[in-house]
Amino acid sequence: MSKKAVVLLSGGLDSTTVLAIAKNDGFSPYALSFRYGQRHETELAAAARVAKAIGAAEHVIAEVNLNVFGGSALTAQIEVPKQRTHAEMSRGIPITYVPARNTVFLSIALAWAELLEADDIFVGVNALDYSGYPDCRPEYISAFEQMANLATKAAVEGRQRIQIQAPLIELSKAQIIQRGLALGVDYGITHSCYDPGSEGRACGSCDSCVLRLKVYREAGLPDPTTYQERLEVVA
């Protein structure tokens, strides 16, 4: 019988690749997505497509309303930055950072993992192209894992040893794409854009779109995404 694992799934490039990795590594993956007060649900539709295509054992969408606090361009009526250069993206923590989002998500994943008797939680954080998000760093993942093993009844009773699996953390975006393609991932069903149009098409100019376009250009591959507009990748 396959070992169970909880996999955080946003429907984007990274989390989709991680779901495929967990499946390929012999885990029975339980995909966990969030309706957290984000300004659009395009990513949730993508997550549902991905979970079905890759073969998640179950896909749950948890409700966590982080927009009651605001503070992020993803949860409040704050303009999403557009047409930024990579130099601009590399400076500071962007307004698309959602306060404590990964901590909240991983905590809920931990609760589900305890109920499933799963020792492994997979997350698609990346330290190389992490856009300044503090909850994507290796030291954060290590600290959360340590906390997780102090936090549950199963761990205290010695029935569970939680491991936070972050297989992409030291890979470049191009390497992530190549890993996923080798596993048969169809990135055409994923979604990365922070500010999609009413029909769900990617804007082509937010930080996430710019990075996605850059990745495909550097990998020498066609980007299957449908954009509202497609800008040249900025330097």
Through-space gap between termini: 49 Å
* Sheet with most strands: 5 strands, parallel
DSSP strand count: 5
Percent in strands: 5-15%
Query: Would you tell me which CATH topology applies?
Result: Rossmann fold
The helix fraction, in percent, is: 25-40%
Give the full name of the CATH homologous superfamily.
Answer: HUPs
Classification by helices and strands? alpha/beta
Description:
There is one protein chain. Helix 1 (13-24) runs parallel beside helix 2 (42-54), helix 1 (13-24) packs across helix 7 (173-182) and helix 7 packs across helix 8. 37% of the residues lie in helices and 11% in strands. The protein is of the alpha/beta class. The protein has a single domain (3-219), classed as HUPs (Rossmann fold), CATH 3.40.50.620. Strands 3-2-1-4-5 form a 5-stranded parallel β-sheet, with helices on both faces. Strand 2, helix 2 and strand 3 (58-63) form a beta-alpha-beta unit.
